[in-house]
Design a protein that fits this description.
Blueprint: H1 2-23, H2 26-52, H3 67-95, H4 103-131, H5 134-163, H6 168-195, H7 202-214, E1 221-230, E2 233-242, H8 248-265, E3 269-277
Parallel strand pairs: 2-3
Antiparallel strand pairs: 1-2
Keywords: Membrane, Transmembrane, Transmembrane helix, Transport
Family: Belongs to the cation diffusion facilitator (CDF) transporter (TC 2.A.4) family.
Subcellular location: Membrane
């Protein structure tokens, strides 16, 4: 999907620049500028996804999953740069507003580009969520932002043409730049949270706890559950308390059972279990089930 995204982005960029050349609209030019970011972002995403799929090695024993977050951060920065360029063009247009040439032809071309982007954005977001790919999801949301921008531009330019007020064109471009700036900030912030080893949400935490408790027969207690997400991978670690007289083999069998259950339910999960004797328990003895401390 990442390679196809490059091809789609190039096609959409060509259509948007054609729309700008036909009309001379500052707003359509701002929309076309953002499409350049889409092409660069799609290329970076392809490289990041390739790196993230590399197996663990001596220098990266936990894998390369976080590579996709760097792609998403870079994409957010590029969006911010595009927003600043758009703002510059908008201020130039505000000083000397000009009438729009062949508006309906240009708007039709831009409408086709927006429709192509909308379909592709939905496919990227769906595929990214399915494969737990931050780069694909970020690319999809960015393109969907582009779609919303294009729709706003089309509606605004229709109003500008119908009203005969040319200054609406650069004003619309300025609004586009502000919206893109906000979207870029949100994307950077989300990606930075991933780089900071953010844990899974509360619903996912509850599901993990349920899976562990259900398959921990023979253990006495589980505590100190920790999670973190790195791209496609979810890392889970916790302490498992067993009777101190239990053999290593029996304790290992419990760990295997829990790990297999987690792997069956959570894609690309990595599990670390620290086994402890009963004197390390944090809850009072006599529990009838395997509780969490």
């Amino acid at each position: 999907m990442a390679f196809a995204s490059i091809v789609v982005s190039l096609g959409v960029m060509a259509l948007k620049f054609l729309a700008w050349r036909v009309t001379g609209s500052v707003a359509l030019f701002s929309d076309a500028l953002e499409s350049i970011v889409n092409v660069i972002a799609a290329t970076v995403a392809l490289y990041a996804i390739t790196v993230s799929h590399r197996p663990a090695d001596d220098e990266h024993p936990f894998g390369h999953h976080k590579a996709e977050y760097f792609s998403a951060v870079l994409e957010g920065v590029l969006i911010i740069v595009a927003a600043l360029l758009i703002a510059r063009e908008a201020f130039v247009g505000l000083r000397a507003p000009a009438p729009i040439d062949a508006p309906w032809e240009g708007l039709a071309i831009n409408g086709v580009a927006a429709a192509v982007n909308a379909v592709w954005a939905l496919l990227l977001i769906r595929g990214g969520n399915k494969h737990r790919s931050p780069a694909l999801v970020a690319d999809g949301h960015h393109i969907m932002t582009d779609v919303v921008t294009s729709i706003g531009v089309i509606v605004g330019l229709v109003a500008a043409v119908m009203s005969g007020i040319p200054i609406l064109d650069p004003l619309l471009a300025l609004l586009v730049g502000i919206n893109i700036l906000w979207q870029g900030w949100k994307l950077v912030n989300s990606s930075v949270q991933g780089l900071m080893d953010t844990g899974v949400d509360m619903a996912e935490t509850y599901r993990i706890r349920t899976i562990i408790s259900t398959h921990a027969q023979g253990a006495l207690e589980i505590h100190d559950l920790k999670t973190r997400v790195a791209g496609r991978a979810t890392f889970i670690e916790f302490h498992l308390v067993v009777d101190q007289a239990m053999s290593v083999g029996d304790a290992h069998a419990i760990c295997d059972r829990i790990e297999e259950a987690l792997k069956a339910d959570i894609p690309s999960v990595r599990v670390v279990i620290h086994v402890e004797p009963d004197q390390e328990a944090k809850l009072p003895p006599g529990a009838t089930a395997v509780p969490f401390a």
